[in-house]
Amino acid sequence: MFKMKYNLFLIILLLINPIMCFSMNSYFSIWINMELNLILFLTFIIMNNLNLYDLSMKYFLINSMSSSIFLFFVIMNFMNLSMFSNLLMNFMIFIKLGMPPFHFWYIDLMKNLNWISCLILSSWQKLIPMLIMFYIFNENFFMIILIISMIISIFKAFISINLKIIFAYSSINHLCWMMMLLIYSLNLWMVYYISYLIMNFSIFFIFNKMNFIYLNDLNKMIFFFNSKFNFMMLISLGGIPPLFGFLIKWLSILEMSFLSNYFILMIMIFFSLIFLYYYIRLLFNNMFLFNDNLKYNFLMLIYKKNFLINLIFLFIFNYKFIYSNFLFKLNKKF
To answer: Which residues form the NADH:quinone oxidoreductase/Mrp antiporter transmembrane domain (predicted)?
Structure first.
């Protein structure tokens, strides 16, 4: 386990800085805090990640460039000099969030950071860009990026064996849900974000303590006293009922179905169920200690087939629920 270097003043500033933005009503003041947050996190990763000066420079250049261009188009927007300023502002914020197809710097950085730095990058550092997106989002461009993000995160996570890369794509998947809630329900977005932050903190802290890097390292989890707790956090993050991760997604589905956004909701449910399959695949290796056992191979085959059947059933069930809700609201109108 890598020993972290903590500077109390730096940590306090890093935690307080994004929260301060909620009390600001100017793009310029939020932009200043966003740049201060960039410098604070850059200092943190240089202190706590050895031999990553090239990645630190990449992180600084990409974020500072996107912030500078964002500020330029904010000024253009105020002066009414460009009809595409709002779209390009959205474009820059998506780069800062690390959402596909602008995610390559984010995945590369997550792969090489330690777990605590990954926790901050995948959750806390996204707070200010999401707040800006709440004020400036362009709906058509937003929906296109959302669908692309969910598709890429699903396929890229399946071919990876590095846990940090898997959780990086998982954060992109959860970010899609949070961005949708940011548009439709600010209170529910706050509940989702805090819940995701707590679950991520629990998982990443244990992985940092156990020094897990690859999928095979999860086989060692059975020897630790907190393995059951980590299992619960992982399946809750995946959204398996009746855990809290499922509850917040269910509330999100209800909120979006009441607002009649059925098409994007169906896409999000479908890809979340596929990601749920991947979470269960992560945990299934830990249910049996000996991977070369014939019984394990046989049960794995049965499990995969049964789960795919259940996956299709859950998708049909959610489709019927949304469709029945749509008919109910349609009948009320007429």
So the answer is: 26-272
Retrieve residue 129's tokens: 């860009």
Write down the mean pLDDT value for the chain. Answer: 77
- Specify the residue for token string 């009922």: 241
- Calpha distance 26→74 (Å, rounded): 11
Tell me the C-alpha distance between 266 and 251, whole Å: 15
Note whether 182 and 215 are within 8 A (CB): no
pLDDT digits (tens, 9 = 90+) for 139-171: 788 888 888 888 888 888 878 888 899 889 989
Q: What is the reported pTM?
A: 0.81
Q: Is the dihedral angle over the CA atoms 24, 25, 26, 27 positive or is it negative? A: positive
How far is residue 251's CA from residue 169's CA, in Å, rounded to a whole number?
23
CB burial of residue 315 (10 Å; 0-12, 13-18, 19+): middle
For residue 129, cis peptide bond before it (omega within 30 degrees of 0):
no
User: What is the C-alpha to C-alpha distance for residues 321 and 262, in angstroms, rounded to an integer?
Assistant: 11
| pLDDT tens sequence across 224-272 | 545 566 677 777 787 777 777 888 888 888 888 777 677 888 888 888 8
Among 121, 291, 274, 305, which Cα is nearest to 215's?
291
Parse the chain into domains and list their residue ranges: 8-333
> At 196, which amino acid appears?
Y
Dihedral sign from CA coordinates of 317, 323, 329, 334: negative
